[in-house]
Amino acid sequence: MSNIYKPKSISGFPEWLPEIRRAEQLWFDQIRTVFESYGFCSIETPSVEELNVINAKGGDGGADVDKEVYVLERLHKQNDDKEARLALHFDQTIPLARYTAQHFNDLVFPFKRYQMQRVWRGERPQAGRFREFYQCDIDVINVDNLPMHFDAEMPAIIWGILSGLDGMENENIQIRISNRKILIGLLEGLGIENITEVTRWIDKSDKLPQDKIAHELENIGLSSDNIDKIFDITSKSSLKETVAINDLMREGIEELSFVMEQLSHLPEGAVIADLSIVRGLDYYTGTVYETVFTDDPSYGSICSGGRYDDLASNYINKKLPGVGISIGFSRLFDRIRLKGNLPSLSMSPADILVILPSEELRPKVMETAQILRKRGFNVETFHSPSKMKRQLAYAQKKGIKYVWFPDAGEVKNMDTSEQAKATPENWTKDD
Amino acid sequence: MSNIYKPKSISGFPEWLPEIRRAEQLWFDQIRTVFESYGFCSIETPSVEELNVINAKGGDGGADVDKEVYVLERLHKQNDDKEARLALHFDQTIPLARYTAQHFNDLVFPFKRYQMQRVWRGERPQAGRFREFYQCDIDVINVDNLPMHFDAEMPAIIWGILSGLDGMENENIQIRISNRKILIGLLEGLGIENITEVTRWIDKSDKLPQDKIAHELENIGLSSDNIDKIFDITSKSSLKETVAINDLMREGIEELSFVMEQLSHLPEGAVIADLSIVRGLDYYTGTVYETVFTDDPSYGSICSGGRYDDLASNYINKKLPGVGISIGFSRLFDRIRLKGNLPSLSMSPADILVILPSEELRPKVMETAQILRKRGFNVETFHSPSKMKRQLAYAQKKGIKYVWFPDAGEVKNMDTSEQAKATPENWTKDD
After folding, report:
1. How far is it, in rounded angstroms, from Cα A348 to Cα A403?
2. Which of A316, A338, A360 lies at the terminal end of a domain, its last residue?
3. pLDDT of A74 strictly over 50
4. Count of C-beta atoms within a 10 Å radius of residue A212
5. Which chain B residues are closer than 8 Å to A373 by Cβ?
6. Exposure check for chain B: N or C terminus, fewer CB within 10 A?
7. Could you tell me the pTM of the whole model?
8. Do A37 and B316 touch (CB under 8 A)?
9. Of the partner residues B3, B21, B317, the one whose CB lies closest to the CB of residue A42
10. Which domain holds residue B114?
11. ipTM of the predicted structure?
12. What is the pLDDT of residues B314-360, one digit of tens each?
């Protein structure tokens, strides 16, 4: 007794009770069904990548997450220094790039895959930010070039998913789309040199007031005239008013216009053009997406992504452009959970509890259950011939809707208290 | 170009091409369906536990795996020495014990849960042994006592699963069951003291010849008379011939007889009593299970488990007996894969590819696809108005069975080359 180690939750590593886990499974099933309905195939990659692969991604987007990377160590190290160091992946994009390069000859392009796995980031846990969490990604990758049509397919799929998940009925969400070529074109056209730094500040538009950002842009050397010109563009959502000052900017406007046009069948407000969206990660080169709760954009994006011209160049001598989007599953799920809006499910998947009236009837109980299982029902049998009251209480506590009395040949609906004759071979639920 | 880091597989961390991954998903779905049909609920625990929890399990079974435990380190460590050290779980039993203790007041007992997650062991990779692999566990835990009926339910469920998985049709598998009380009772009755050491050698019966084991038992001080008596018992499979020499042994024989009797409805040879089964892990106290390919028992057990009288005593001041069994999913799956017996699935989940005859027809193509999706089909649309030959080749390479020609209003079955008129609102597969 004195050796009891009372366990507690590990901050940032969520864990659910069975009834919440059932809602989580339901969501995974719903998301997977939509991904597959568009012909995306599933892959899974190992939880780890070689540290060389994680580091090879280059770009200064890496600097942000490097300090969050978890590496593995054997508890009792042996003489295996020769082995590559392994790190838990912090997203599914780098593993996808590595996978596509490694299995290039066995894949068919355009390669359309979905991936629903845990990722790990050793950041400080807070609302909607975990250290271990699920992401649900789709990406399309092609060789040499990838039609813009796919940039429009991504938000259409995501809209279908997010508006269809059980528990999201009353949420107002919005997918915001931009094209990095517009802002980059503008900055280049204005002769601004520290483009990365500038885009980082613009990226904070949803978190900081405009005058704060203006102040920071001034600090890094931008003229107030240029700052005005930047804000003039980033605050626009009508592309028709946006005037290109060079070819790159024009290309961005055309691409974004194409994408928005393809999405015109979605409900009004589902998708908007928002030129302040830039995304922090520098591998994006064209379309970029963010998705927010319109009544609380400060919760941050729950589904983000974009287009990259050349994702796997670190691993293969081929040009592989792609476009992808990632649902921050755990962020989204946790918010709906905390609002109490998840579908209310029982802790047990069982439809029916078969009562065990006496030990002698056990063979009949088992047989009844087995017939019902073969017909597709989930069936528990009570384990001991306890008092009826106790067996019924068990069904109630586990949320099992139907109780089967094999001696009487009757079934009771625990919600309505109705009880009727039934045979296992042809009984059906009454809902 | 000079910076290309050519990625390769990480030994012990399997990764599948999309067509193999689809078979893996199919198996997971099939297993989950059976688990739920018996009323088991799903839980998932974090990938990590506090090192204190992993170490708290006690018993010398721990010594075996301690050196295989992976702990997490932040790549760039900060001043967070106060945080508990985290280790990747190496099984799902310790996490279950911790979960049950931690959430004790929110669970309903008997608590019947399944868990299908990755686990990690830093052991030397070899055939059927991975460093990252899936286990599919079911356990029943109760307070104070747990009816023996559950010990019989486990192998019945497992038999249903293993004989029902697509690709297992031609495998001869056998679940071998013993009860540790029999061997422990015998050893105690014979006055043998180093019981743990002796059972460890007996446990190797499927890997070492009997004379080698006899030699080792002699080395640790057993008389040849006692060794004969041990082998006399462990080589028996008929319980009727097994004579108890004390109460513990008698109890074990009775329990095992009960379990075998409850399983008499399974096909002959599906389940046998095998008194040489002891299982290495010392937390088992009664029934123990192993499952082997009868034509290759040396591949090792693909599904093992047993009963424990008091699993969570390290974490809670309650007696929580349980019984559980774990499918070594990756071991099993990889064997069937290497034998070429997995169901042969296409790499794409799409049923239909809708041809894009021209850019003008894109709206009709999208609409056709959307109608079919709403009717439950998985549908890809071709992304560009390429030559027909190329679009058909794409369907063929991805294994998409039906090609839809929206201009002609016809569907072609790529297997039979039959082509017929169809409308998206009422088309059905012809198989």
Report:
1. 14
2. A338
3. yes
4. 12
5. 37-38
6. N
7. 0.95
8. no
9. B21
10. 18-338
11. 0.95
12. 899 999 999 999 999 999 999 999 999 999 999 999 999 999 999 99
